[in-house]
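User: I want to check something. If I give you two sequences, will you return the structure for each one separately, not as a complex?

Assistant: Yes, each is folded on its own. Here is the first sequence with its structure:
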Amino acid sequence: MAVLSVSRRTVTRSVRALGVVSATAALALGAAGNAAACNINEFSAEAKCDGDKGVITVTDVDPAGVPATVTVFLQNNGADIEKIGEQVVRGSKEGTTITFEEDWKPNAEYRIHVTAKPFVDEDIKPNLITPSTPCKEDEESPSPEPTPSEETSAPAEESEEPTPAPSESESESAAPPADTSDNAPSPAGESNLAETGANSNTGLIAGVAAALVALGGGAVFFGMRRRGANSQR
């Protein structure tokens, strides 16, 4: 009887010990399973270009495939100013990606929140900053070059059309013959008249000639008087 009682106690203790060990293992496995079920580190976000438009993608690599709600907010100075969109994603070992159509601006900031209760309820850190280069460059159309007619003609309201300048060959052919009047001999009279008129000493010569004429006349007058006086004697 005593031996049977001891054996029952031993078995009971062993069963209790095994139950404690099993419960502990189950709790550990449950905690590990919950930790592996969904984690914020399994989510990543990226700003990309889809042609000329921008998009924001979020990838979930949760192998358990726990449904998670992803919400994207546009931020400015640390505050949400616009809700871009919200989608549900089921992760996979290879990764499941969802896309938000958002024509983002360079260096814009977005906050991305993930909710997968009871595992995750937080933001992807750090916030998403878009690239400094836009998906589509602003191309300034160059101004059209003026046509030759526009360059040479002016509006009718302002002025008349300018007469086109003659070409070099036309100017040479239309040039008048060289003036040879200076080299051609002129008649004697015209030459004397030209020289007399052109001489700057004409007035002086005329004055001297008049003085000489006056002196000659006086000499003749006095000579005639003397000759008359001598004849009377």
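And separately, the second sequence with its own structure:
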Amino acid sequence: MQQLEIDFRGKVTLEELFAAYFECRKNKRKTKNAQKFEMNYEERLIKLRDEINNGTYKIGRSIAFVVEKPVKREIFAADFRDRVVHHLVIQKLNALFEKEFIYDSYSCRVGKGTLFGVKRLSRFIRACSENFTKETYVLKLDIKGFFMHINREILFRKLQKFIESKYVVADQGLLIEIVEQIVQNDCTERCFVKSPRWKWDDLPPDKSLFNNDGSGIPIGNLTSQVFANFYLSTFDHFMKSTLKLRYYGRYVDDFFVVHNDKDYLKNLIPVIEKFLKDELHLTLHPKKRILQNAKHGVKFTGAFIKQHLIYIDKRAKGNLYQVIDKWNKDIESESKKNVLNSERFTPEEFKHFQASVNSYLGFMVHYRTYNLRKKMCQKISPRFHIRFKPKKSYTKIG
């Protein structure tokens, strides 16, 4: 029987691009790029499909800026058109990535996240210590300048091999071409710098792609987040399958190991260092190596885990206070100029403030934070009450 050959330079369909577009615009509809694209999105998507299929698609300019919270970092935001392509790629590969990832990889995954990671670490500590009856230690490590030091060549080779073996679909070759262009794109070229240049002055050199040597992928793109997770999946399997670590978990580049033997964890550090350097060209952060007794409490992804309770850490509380204080000052300063609140803040700005506060409250509601949530909601200026007030139990404002 003659075996049929598959043409792996198949085509991207308009239906796929429409699905990617509608997913992409969910949280970006108010941006200027999104609004411009939406004005004639059908024609733009047809053009984008044709460019992808005939091999003329090129990545556009990125917008570079610096954010201060939760930590100061450099962001490169892709053009909305390119974001649609990012969603198209992840739309095709995400289910396959999920099969590749270990259970205790928590970032950028449906049903996972920071809260899931905190609960897993809490469970690991309780299991390893046999409900705090045995001495148990937690080793926490962090990769130095993770996104900025991802080796693009290694990443693309891994992705190419993965797609060739797992994505057995007609447009396999076309998908590899798009992925290569995304991974190898130097977003610093022709970028529009939105933040003032002085914002970069106190940003460490290894925290900026402007100082890189050809390595690094931009923080801010969907593909970067998912590809970074994929990049470290090799490390995850090394930790779980090769080293046989039962109590291991990772959120982005922060990871932990729980064990009863303190010396075992100490001796684990050089083993981890060697693997990261040899296989992924990454290094551990020299100042973020913590080995502690679990009974003293452990910080992880915005939470502080103790024997009987999980608290919100000081940084998360401080960030919310700063958000509220900033908006309070804005609205109070304008009121002194006899400017009506409705004129000072557009409906979109009110929604932005509401979403910002609710994201923190939504995180806190999973812990015993009623008094804290109440205190924070009471700090909101009464002038905001024309739009919203705290809901019952201070779980959100609306």
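Because they were folded independently, the notes below concern the second chain alone. The first helix runs from residue 14 to 24. Confidence is low (pLDDT under 50) at residues 1-8, 338-343.
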